[in-house]
Amino acid sequence: MDKKKTCIENIANMKNLKPYKKLKNKQKRLNIILFLIVFALFIGMFYSFREEEKQEIKIKQKPENIGVAIMTGNVETKTVEKKSYQTMPEQLNGYTVIGKVEIPKIESITYILEEMSEKSLNVSAAKLCGPEINQIGNLCIAGHNRRTFSGLKKLEIGDQIIVTDIYDDKCYYQVYDIQIVKPDEVECLSQDTEGEREITLITCTISGLKRLIIKAVEIYD
User: Fold this and answer.
1) What's the pTM value of the predicted model, to 2 decimals?
2) Could you tell me which residues come within 8 angstroms of residue 148 by beta carbon, excluding any fewer than 6 positions away?
């Protein structure tokens, strides 16, 4: 009889525990849901902060803020390599091309060869002496008067000459002096330009006894 009573009491106690367990499980589920909501809010705030940080970096790298960015070390420098020979051939008849001369007045475009010789002058104009294309100094370029530089005699003081290098960088020059000299008068080849970029175009006169010299200096915008 006592065992039966004890069993009945245990069953009753188990029935009384069921509502408590259900409530406890429900509370657990609510806690999990709340945790997920809080976690999602945290993730959202984190990504929002990262986006704001990226925008601030972009603003710092704008041209008007470049000075500040350089001082604070926030600028990432990227070197963009220019492609060569996009607007001119790399070679002419086996001779390396190092640039070109354009003279709008006489509608002339002449390639400048690296090698200076009697044979190369039969192909195009060539560098006689001086610096690299469009560098400080006096770049002297020679050409035949019956071929590449046949129109130089038409030039006047103030006319424009454009020289382009192999990377398509242009420099604009203006004629400031025109001379006719003897072959042994070489003052026109002087490299004393006082820090300016100059070019000297050289060709023979019609008789071939003298030299026509066209000197031009860089002009600035």
Assistant:
1) 0.65
2) 110, 121, 124, 125
Q: How far apart are CA 124 and CA 8, in angstroms?
A: 119
* CA dihedral of 170, 168, 149, 127, whole degrees rounded to 10: 90
Residue 139 structure tokens:
């770049």
Give the pLDDT of residue 134: 97
Q: What is the structure's pLDDT at 167?
A: 97
Asked if 76 and 66 touch (Cβ cutoff 8 Å), the reply is no
- 3-class secondary structure, 30: helix
CATH of 91-218, one of 3.20.20.140, 1.25.40.10, 3.40.50.300, 2.40.260.10: 2.40.260.10
Domain locations along the chain: 2-72, 91-218
176-216 pLDDT per residue, tens: 999 999 999 999 999 999 999 999 999 999 888 999 999 99
Q: Shortest CA distance to 187 belongs to which of 218, 161, 217, 213?
A: 213
